[in-house]
Fold this protein.
Amino acid sequence: MPLVEASLLDILVCPACHAPLREDEDAAELVCTSDDCGLAYPVKDDIPVLLVDEARRPG
Ligand SMILES: [Zn+2]
């Protein structure tokens, strides 16, 4: 099961850098595709939480 619908994922961008997001189904996160940013946003109750304050930083 995808975390979010593909049509929704297509229009979502990272709020920090506006790069596209990709799903990490195992972690239940949407991960920024920018190498410089890479923030991971949680998906709670099927709702992506695209808030920089809520994001997990890489590394
Ligand atoms: Zn980003």
The pocket of zinc ion is lined by residues 14, 16-17, 19, 32, 34, 37, 39 (CB under 6 Å). DSSP finds one helix and four strands in the chain.
